[in-house]
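TA notes, week 10

Several of you asked for a full example with nothing omitted. So below is the full record: structure tokens for the whole chain, then the designed sequence directly under it. When grading your own attempts, check the secondary structure regions first.
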């Protein structure tokens, strides 16, 4: 599914698949080649990159909330696959970050 989805995004006007981040550098390099991203970064570097306007969070379920909060804090639009959070505390952290910054958060189903 990601190949089709990334291909659709890549062909949209104004969309640049600039960076991909994974927990493993090898996986990030592979994703760069497979999906046409320009560069591979660590998740922390990608989330702090001033040139990045939005992020897709397609990681392990237990990491979604951490990345969502970091993306919101760094003023990024967020597209996150379900689940948004796996605990009530994680959901509360996201709610607080969203309320403070009012960035866009989109929950993806069937990505």
């Amino acid at each position: 599914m990601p190949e089709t989805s990334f291909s659709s995004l890549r062909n949209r006007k104004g969309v640049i698949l600039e960076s991909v981040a994974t927990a493993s550098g090898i996986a990030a390099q592979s994703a760069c080649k497979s999906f046409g991203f320009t560069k591979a970064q660590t998740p922390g570097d990608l989330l702090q990159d001033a040139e990045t306007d939005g992020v897709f969070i397609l990681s392990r379920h237990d990491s979604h909330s951490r990345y969502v909060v970091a993306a919101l804090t760094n003023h990024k639009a967020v597209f996150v696959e379900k689940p948004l959070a796996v605990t009530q505390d994680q959901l509360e952290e996201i709610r607080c970050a969203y309320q403070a910054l009012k960035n866009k958060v989109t929950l993806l189903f069937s990505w």
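Helices lie at 2-10, 25-35, 43-48, 64-73, 88-101. Use that as a sanity check on your answer.
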